[in-house]
Every structure is written in structure tokens, then in C-alpha cells.
Amino acid sequence: MSTGEKPAVLIVGAGLGGIMLGALLEKSNVPYVIFERTTSVKPLGSAMSVGPNVMPIFQQLGIYDEFLTISNPLNDLTYFSEDMKEYKPIDHRPVQGVAGYGYRVVARPMLYGLLLRLVPEQNILYGRRVLNISEDYDKVTVHITKHESYEGDIIVGADGAYSAVRQRMYQQLKAKGELPKTDFEELPFSYTCLLGQTRPLSPEEFPCVDNSYCQFNTILGTNKPYTWVTLSTAQKTLCWMVVHHLDRKASKEATEQRFRTSENSEWGAYPAQTMCNETRDFPIQLNDGMQRTLGELYDRTPAEQISKIMLEEKVFDTWYSGRTVLLGDACHKIHPSSGQGGITAIHDAIALANLLYALPSCTSEEVTKIFEEYRAERFPVVKHAFKFAQLIKQLVAVGIVGAITFHVFTHLPKWLWKVVFASNLRSRPQVGFLPEIKSECTVAPIDSPSFIKAKAVYEETLQRVASV
């Protein structure tokens, strides 16, 4: 039974996971504040595929209808060789019957903006770089400067793959001999990625932007260690992404370059422009009969919307310690080939919000207990998503392994694709403190332990209010 005591939550990082957690805590009346080291929102990114595993939560939050207006349906994924030979598309339409919703593609900045509007401005403090974190038995303190600090009951590290919160937590655990060896090894990666989004384009010049569905085309480099993708959006723009498959030498050089920068995974304008210059002649397929290149999209993309990042891959074992807990890329970095990176961060936020809502008291023992439950629920699901992404990324890998994997996946029968979709869409979590969304589908979602726990507290609260 909950005592009604609400924990004060300090969230470090205003990415998708941090903003989603803030939006959910806002709905559950749990006090929180978000610290973001940048001075303003930086809406970078290409597009992301969003499927049935987050649609129910969008309905619960009251943003589902608006989400439909800013996204396009994804019917299939189409692959081409570099000489524009078309391979058999992968049909995504069976998902609707399997899980009650179809897949949709949304420009990442648009989705971010939609979620950001759910968080009051005063709850996000920009230009706040965390310098230190101190913890007592009954509280945690975030130190921003010598003269600015904030106290709370719980701190959530939602600050990305090179999380400052995780690094400080791991340093303390390592000093005590309590950190697994794998957790202080470097984040492995063997890919870099150039991405961006054009300005709104004229349908007369680029007919594909007038489609009522997402044209999702992938080009597999034949004699180049690259794969590149174009996606049309509901805003009449084209999102694009170029993945560079690194060999060991190139990966080592990329690692050294990362340590020479202060932005960790993002390398800044000059390296991004260099990669643009190197790839601008790569051909693209927009299904309009024109011979086009990536350079046409680069020239129509604002410079500030182009970024170069690394695609790290790792699931950390240690997700919490004391009153500190990690979320999203801070505890698991998943290759984007399966479209699960942002989704797993959102799912983390849902599970953690459920447990914080149901937290019976803010004692150290109760906080540790919910952190244990949070990791126990999310870790197996994240590991499954990680392994699935490892498999899917072979679709665009270079060499014989990629060719074999690609052939197998593009020739799976429809019934087997339904099995694949079903296995990855059983996890469709909801929050237990809002009215539950029911949907008609052939594969029922799994009720997560955190949902069940929060729902019990929510129903108990409703009964108590009704009896007064």
C-alpha cells in the first residue's frame, strides 16, 4: 500500500527518454526537474520508425491523433543495389492485424517536439552541466556549479551513451570493487553515421514527398563500405542517413578522434561536411525516373541539421546504485538498424514511471527495491532487442554474411514474417496510473510487472476517493 509520499526525481538529460519520463511523471503528479547541459533544444536527427509497441502510450498521453498527423504509414522497406536493381521489399502491413497498429515513420525532431510539449517549461533547466553528484542515506544532491545544487530522492541518468551520471556512479563502484569488468570496458562500435533532414521540398521537383505513405528506400553499397537510406515524411521533407561500415583500422582512428573532441559521440560541423563531400555522388532512388544523388539532398539540408555520430553497441550490466538509476542509452546502446534505440528508452521511462508512482515510501530500502524491479523487468527485453538489432544490421552489412542474411530476410514467407513481428511486439507497455487502452489484435500484449503494480495503486486510490 502506498503512503502517498512522492519522491523528488532529478532527471539528467533531455533526450527522448528523459523527456518521456518527465511527461509521465507530470501525469502522475510525481515532482521532478530535468537538467540539460545544452542551452536550448537541438532538434537533430533523421527519421525513426514507430510501431505498435508505443502507440498505446501515445493514446494514454492524449497525443495519438496528433502523432498520426506528423507521421506517415510505413508499408514496406525497399532495398536497391548501387546500380538500382530492386530487391524484394519487406512488407510491414501484416503488423496491423498482429498488434492492432501499423508502423509509421516520423522525423525524430517532430516526435521530440510532440513529447516536449507535455513537459512544462519550468521543469527543464537548460545550460546545466552536472559537475558532481553526492549521496546521503536519505537524499541525493546534484551539483551544477559551486553555488548551485539541487536535492532530491532519486537521480535518473538519461544523458546518453557517454552518460556523466553513469561514469560517476561506475567510478564509485569500481573503487569499491563492485563493478563488473565488462562495465568499465569502452563502448564498442564499428560504424559512423551521417544524418539529416532537408527543408520542405516541392512536390513538382520531388514527387515522393506528396505520397500519403513513407517511401523508405535503402541502397546497399556494392563496392563501397557504405549503406544509405532515404525516407519521406509528412512534412514534405526527405530524411537521410549514410552508414559507414568501419574496418578495424578505421574504427581505431574514429575512437582516437572521439577522444580529441568534447562532444563525445557527435563530431561537429567540419567532419560532417567532410563526409558529405565524400558521399555526395552516391546514387539514390526516389522512384521518379530521375538519376539523383545524395548531394541533391545535402544541398537542400540546412547545415545545422547535419550531424555525424557513432553507432555504439552495448548493454551494460549495472543499471543502478544507491539512489541513482540509468535509463535509455546511458545503460544500453542499440544499433539503429532495428529501430529499437529510441523505443527502448521510451519503454524504460514507462517502467520507471510506473514504479515511481507505486513507490510506497522514499526510504533507501524501498528505492533499492524498485530499482531491482526496474532492471529485472527491462534487462531481458533490452537484451532481446539488442540481439535482434545485431541480426537486422546484417541486412545492410558488407560481404558474404550480409548477402546471405539479406537473401534470407527478403525471401521469408508472410506467415513467418508474422511470427517475427509477433515475437518483437509482445512488449507494448502502458502506464498503470492512466486509463488502460484496449486494442483488437491477434497477439495480446504482455502485462509488465510495473504496470500491474502501478495499476493496483491507481485503482486503490480511485476507490479511496470514491468512498470519501
UniProtKB/TrEMBL annotation:
Q: Which InterPro entries match?
A: FAD-bd, FAD/NAD-bd_sf, FAD_mOase_fung
Membrane spanning segments where? 7-25
Pfam families hit by this protein: FAD_binding_3
Give the FAD-binding domain ranges: 8-388
Family assignment from sequence similarity: Belongs to the paxM FAD-dependent monooxygenase family.
4Fe-4S as UniProt keyword = no
Keywords associated with the record: FAD, Flavoprotein, Membrane, Oxidoreductase, Transmembrane, Transmembrane helix
A molecular function (GO) held by this record is: monooxygenase activity
Full protein name: FAD-binding domain-containing protein
Among SUPFAM superfamilies, the record links this protein to: FAD/NAD(P)-binding domain (SSF51905)
